[in-house]
Amino acid sequence: MAVGQNQRTRKNDSMLTKTGKARLGPLNATQLTKLLETSTKPKEKSKILRALSKRQIVTE
């Protein structure tokens, strides 16, 4: 679950997973690039780059 919350107080957010991590699936390329600029963790950046490369293949 999200950090510091229990199941009763947690708001359902379709853009977050149960653990509070962002879902990259429904985001478009511009949203992914913005997220890439704001993220600081290398693991997150690699996930975003991988998702971004998948989007560019589909759109071309």
Characterize this entry briefly:
By secondary structure, the chain is mainly alpha-helical. The chain has helices at 29-38, 42-59.
Computed CA radius of gyration, to the nearest angstrom: 13 Å
Cα(first) to Cα(last) distance is: 37 Å
The largest β sheet comes out as: none
Q: What fraction strand?
A: under 5%
**Helical content class:** 40-55%
Question: How are helices and strands ordered from N to C?
Answer: HH
In the predicted model, the low-confidence regions spanning at least 5 consecutive residues are none
Structural class: mainly alpha
Strands, total number: 0
From the spread of the alpha carbons, the general shape counts as elongated
Count of alpha/pi helices? 2
Average pLDDT taken over every residue? 78
Topology (elements, then pairings):
Blueprint lengths: L28 H10 L3 H18 L1
Helix pairs in contact: 1-2
Description:
47% of the residues lie in helices and 0% in strands. The model has no long low-confidence stretch (mean pLDDT 78). The chain is built from 2 helices and no strands. The protein has helices at residues 29-38, 42-59. By secondary structure, the protein is mainly alpha-helical. The termini are far apart.
Which terms would index this structure?
mainly alpha, 47% helix
